[in-house]
Amino acid sequence: MIPIINRLSFADYIRLIVAFTILIWEPFFRLLFNYLPLDRLLNALQKWFRGTDTGSSIDKEFAHLKSTEDFCSFWGFKMETHFVTTTDGYILGLHRLPHPRSNPNSRSKEHPKSSETKPVVLLWHGFLMCSEVFVCSPDPHLSLAFTLAQAGYDVWLGNSRGNKYSCKHRAFKPSMTEFWDFSLDQIAQLDGTFHPQLNV
User: Fold this and answer.
1) How do residues 145-188 score in pLDDT, each as one tens digit?
2) How many other C-beta atoms are found inside a 10 Å radius of the C-beta of residue 154?
3) Could you tell me the CA-to-CA distances from 187 to 1, 83, 130, 133, 162 in Å, in that order?
C-alpha cells in the first residue's frame, strides 16, 4: 500500500498534482521563455487590454529610466550623490534629496534655495534592492522619498554594500572573492555606521 494514500487532505492531493505537473512542463516553459520574443508578446497583450492605446508619453519616458538620478530628475527633484566608508572598508553611495521641487504640479527643474536646517530622514532599502525602490513610482505622490522631500525634510537614500551604487571597497575589487565575503549581519551592523575619518 502507498504510504501517502488516505493520509492527505483533498487540497494536499491537488497541490501535489499541480507540483508534479509544473515539474513535468518545466523544460517546455524554459525553452518557451528562452526563445519566445517576450517583449513582442508583452506589447501585444498591452495593446489587447488597452485597445489601440500604447500608453501615455510619460509612461514611455518612464520605461527608459535606469537610475535613481534618472527617476529624481524625471519628476523635477535635484539629487546629490555622496560617498561614505564603513568601518570595514566598503564605500557606499548615498543619494540625497535636499529640496522639494519648486512646483509640485510640474516637472520643473528649478529648485528653491534654502540654508535653513531641516529635519533629516534616512530611508534604507530592503534585501537585494537599492535606493531606486523609493523613487521608481510612476506617480510621485506615491513615493515616500518625494513626499518627504515635498514636506520639507532633508531626505537621504541609503545603498547597502554590493548593490549597483555601493560596489567599491578601499582594498578589494568586486571581481575578488574577498569583496563578497559578508553576510546580512555585516549589512545590518556596519552599513549604517560610518567611520568619520574614512568618508570620501
Assistant:
1) 999 999 999 999 999 999 999 999 999 999 999 999 999 899 98
2) 17
3) 52, 16, 13, 18, 10
Provide the 10 A C-beta neighbour count for residue 123: 17
d(CA 171, CA 158): 22
Verdict on whether the full-model pTM lies above 0.90 = no
- Cα–Cα distance, 94 to 104 (Å, whole number): 24
Give the C-alpha separation, 162 to 51, whole Å: 42
Q: Are strands 120-123 and 154-157 parallel, antiparallel or unpaired?
A: parallel
